[in-house]
Design a protein that fits this description.
Elements (H helix, E strand, L loop, with lengths): L1 H8 L4 H10 L8 H15 L5 H11 L2 H9 L1
Length: 74
């Protein structure tokens, strides 16, 4: 049912656009909370089933370097 609804109501490029946005998503001028919230929404939209370490890597990759360096040290 979910697949039929998606194919009927969403454009064919929707999933590809969401995944592209996720992989290019970076924290520029938003807070950590906002970045985390938007990142989680993009994960849900993309419906990606990947190992947790890859998700964490993607999250850290988009963080502002001053924050990602602190996380890498931890």
């Amino acid at each position: 049912m979910k697949t039929k609804l998606k194919s009927h109501f969403l454009p064919s490029s929707y999933l590809q656009d969401c995944c592209s946005h996720l992989h290019n998503f970076i924290q520029v001028s938003i807070s950590m909370e906002e970045y985390t919230r938007k990142f989680e929404k993009l994960l849900i939209k993309c419906d990606i089933q990947e190992p947790k370490d890859q998700t964490i890597f993607g999250y850290l990759r988009g963080l502002n370097p001053k924050y990602s360096n602190v996380f890498k040290l931890q």
